[in-house]
Amino acid sequence: MEVKRDILWRVYLCFLGIVLLSVAVLGRALYIQNAEGSYWRSKSDSLHTRIINLDADRGTIYSADGNMLSTSIPFFNIYIDFGAEGLQEKKGKRFRDNLDSLSISLAQLFQDRSSQEYRQLLQTGFRKKDRYFQLKKGISFQEYKKLRDFPLVRQGRNKSGFIAEVRSRRLNPYGLLANRTIGLARENAQNVGLERTYDSLLKGESGKKLVRFISGGVAVPVEGYEVEPENGKDLVTTIDVNIQDIAENALLKMMIENEAEHGTCIVMEVATGKVKAIANLGKKSAGEYWEDLNYAIRASEPGSTFKLATLLAVLEDNKAHIGTHVNLENGVWKVNGRTVFDSERHKRTDVTIQQAFELSSNVGMAKLAINYYAGNPMQYISHLRRLRLHEGSGIDLVGETRPIVKTPKSKTWSATSLPWMSFGYEVLVSPLQTLMLYNAVANNGKMMKPYLVQEIRQGAEVVRTHEPEVMVEKICSDATLRQLKTCLEGVVVNGTAKSLSTPYYGIAGKTGTALVANGNHGYSDHIYQSSFAGYFPADKPEYSCIVVIRNKPHAVKYYGGAVAGPVFREIADKLFAMLSQKLPAATAMGPGIDSSAFFYAGESGEVRKVFEVLKVPYRDSAVDKRWVTVASTTDHKTELAALKVTKKEMPALKGMGLKDALYILEDLKVKVIVKGRGKVVRQSIEPGSPVPVNSRVEIELN
Predict the structure, then answer these.
(1) 250-270 average pLDDT score
(2) Are the C-beta atoms of 309 and 429 separated by less than 8 Å?
(3) CA atoms of 326 and 584, how far apart (whole Å)
(4) What is the pLDDT of residues 530-584, one digit of tens each?
(5) Strand positions, DSSP E, 400-501
(6) The pLDDT value given to residue 1
(7) Does residue 399 lie in a domain region?
(8) What confidence tier does 646 reach under pLDDT thresholds 50, 70, 90?
(9) Dist CA 373 CA 378 (whole Å)
(10) What is the rounded average pLDDT of the residues 660-679?
(11) Which DSSP string corresponds to 109-155?
(12) In angstroms, what CA-CA distances link 195 with 69, 189, 372, 405?
């Protein structure tokens, strides 16, 4: 018994020792975690390094006339590290001493909370020792610069805990104008338009930086271990802002009037293939229109504008000439078990091919296809291929849909495929492809590749230039070309587009009215696609243009000449007026004197830095103001003067660069229309005037 008791006593003693040791270990662990946790975490932070990426500035997209179409504007997300040593030392004395003045400053700057609400918000974050407390998201550069001088914040990150996360957002100063073509650069979604096509050039190359983390998780750069980012390249497009504005507004006006579903309009420079305007409008659920999809490069059944390709094939193969007669059968003809109808009813029978084209007769084109190509459809299709209608346009835009031109080997080929293709059905091509054909006729048979970007720049240096490219040297013989031009001009003088005729200049073109399917409803909803393609002036073509509009079901007005034609005519009238105003080279005025050569405006810190680097002496009367003017005084000295900038009235923008002007106007919540390039020389709202929210402000640069 004594031995047993002795053994049990020893076991109990060991057990008790283990329990006491466990309690001690657990207690020490809790003490380290709660009482000394921040100290040891900061020690851990200081023991490791990391390579972080340095974002490059994304390039800017310009119009052909130097207007900024898409650029990046910085914004800032503000966080607070309430666990920072500077805030927590001496039981938070620094935080408490600055709390009231900081709350008042925040309330005055952002005007979204009272100073008392900001005080409570900051106290809550401080009590929780939140290491990444979100104070404000998406503040502008001007707001951030003011914030840096606030109480507590100006003491630096280690003492204040304030963290600024720099981001950038893409800004399209012209809003709707060519929005889908220019595109969007988005973080959480796929880019579109030029932003996507040229993304690798625009985004530049990210840099690398080695940082070491010190107490409080603060990252400190390691000397000698940094690769600077290479900023993105700028794009200079072929788009002319004035022509784009004309096209967009003309299209929008007709879309609203006819309650159309969607539409597109393209204006191309005949000699070069430069796309000067490309408008795409779709109807949203609420009824307004927006650039939702790029309809210009989406293939669909073109309708009667395709008849030009059929006419070209017949003439080029010497099957007939435009004076050859064809029977239109009063606009109704049965072929291979199906009936062909002319969309505009008539009682015509014996007419010439030219008259059939001017009347836009489906029966006339179908008869030409059957009479001359029924035995050898590939002879007809070979012409379509030489016109590159079976291939994409090759334009520098991602997202072009694939065209479809059937052959007898296609699974869907039938006995009626050939006649229906002759007037634009059972074939899919995009409006841009159709325009390329009409542009080639206007360009004396030379088919040009359409393009949107003419220069790629790195700063002031031109890195690459895109020259006009010929896709087909000659689409047909000169004899065929003369007959095609005669027919296209005849459509406007005598045919379905005679309402577009004007005594001031000639128009050549073709109307199109196609019945299109509406999903599972088929053709029962009577949805028509109205189109007009052509060029002007007819005798010396400068521009080609196509307008395609998909109308609502059972629209009262749907013929191409009545819907798409007026849009074409409005664009042509305004562009012809612009062409008429061009002075001959001999009388053109030379460059004038730059009236703002000795007057500039901008952000004071940047201006002073430039003067210091260049060692330019100056007189500074701006004190501590953020925005200044730089002017030449009467004694030929350079002087900095304060520029008044508030959120309640329009500031004087003269002499500013575009980015500085946009920074300021962004705070005023106005819509900015920009013209020209260089420095601001004119503004639509006078300095000192009140500025209502969502006002339209035009600034002109020179």
Answers:
(1) 94
(2) no
(3) 47
(4) 999 999 999 999 999 999 999 999 888 989 999 999 999 999 999 998 888 764 5
(5) 404-405, 427-428, 447-448, 453-458, 461-465, 470-472
(6) 56
(7) yes
(8) confident
(9) 8
(10) 78
(11) HH-SS-HHHHHHHHHHHHHHT-TTEEEEEEE-HHHHHHHTTSTTGGG
(12) 11, 12, 47, 30
Same domain membership, residue 460 and residue 382 = yes
Strand partners, 335: 338
- 639: Cβ contacts below 8 Å, ≥ 6 apart: 618, 619, 620, 621, 630, 631, 632, 633
Residue 611 lies in a domain: yes
State phi, psi for 692 to the nearest 5 degrees: -65, 150
Tokens of 108: 């005055």
For residues 53 and 227, what is the distance between their CA atoms, to the nearest angstrom? 9
Contact 217, 45 (CB under 8 A): yes
Confirm if 338 and 308 have CB atoms less than 8 A apart.
no
Rounded-to-integer distance, Cα 384 and Cα 310, Å: 8
Residue 20 lies in a domain: no
Of 658, 617, 661, nearest to 643 (Cα)?
661
Q: Write down the pLDDT at residue 24.
A: 76
3-state secondary structure of 172: coil
The tens digit of pLDDT for each residue in 482-522 reads 999 999 999 999 999 999 999 999 999 999 998 887 767 66
What b-and-e string marks burial along 134-165, b requiring 16 or more CB atoms within 10 Å of the CB?
A: ebbeebbbbbbebbeebbbbebebebbbbbee
| Confidence check: pLDDT of 228 > 80 | no
Q: Per the structure block, which two tokens stand in for 35? A: 């009482």
579 residue type, one letter: L
Q: Which amino acid is at 607?
A: V
Between CA 186 and CA 189 the distance in angstroms is: 6
- Give the total number of structural domains in the chain: 4
The CATH number of the domain holding residue 199 is 3.90.1310.10
**Domain shared by 633 and 507, yes or no:** no
Crossing angle for the helix pair 377-386 and 307-316, to the nearest 10 degrees: 110
Q: Please name the amino acid found at residue 531.
A: S
Q: Which domain holds residue 151?
A: 77-166
How far is it, in rounded angstroms, from Cα 507 to Cα 509?
Answer: 7
Q: Does residue 288 sit in the same domain as residue 357?
A: yes
SS3 label, residue 512:
strand
Q: Say what the pLDDT of residue 636 is.
A: 63
Let me know whether 370 and 388 are in one domain: yes
pTM beyond 0.90: the answer is: no
Find out whether 185 and 195 touch, Cβ atoms under 8 Å. Answer: yes
In three-state form (DSSP H/G/I as H, E/B as E, the rest C), the secondary structure along 368-404 is HHHHHHCCCHHHHHHHHHHCCCCCCCCCCCCCCCCCE
Q: How many CB atoms lie within 10 A of CB 450?
A: 28
The overall longest dimension of the chain from CA atoms, in Å, is 136
Query: What's the rounded mean pLDDT across residues 380-395?
Result: 94
Assess if residue 27 is contained within a domain: no
Tokens of 647: 């959120």
Closest CA to 182 of 62, 298, 297, 58: 62
Give the pair of three-digit tokens for residue 272.
Answer: 């070069």
429-442 residue pLDDT tens: 999 999 999 999 99
Q: How far apart are CA 276 and CA 412, in angstroms?
A: 38
Look over the chain and give the mean of its residue pLDDT values, rounded to a whole number: 84
Task: Specify the residue for token string 């390329």.
Answer: 436
Q: Kindly list the distances between the CA atom of residue 114 and the CA atoms of 133, 147, 153, in Å, as whole numbers in the listed order.
A: 19, 17, 19
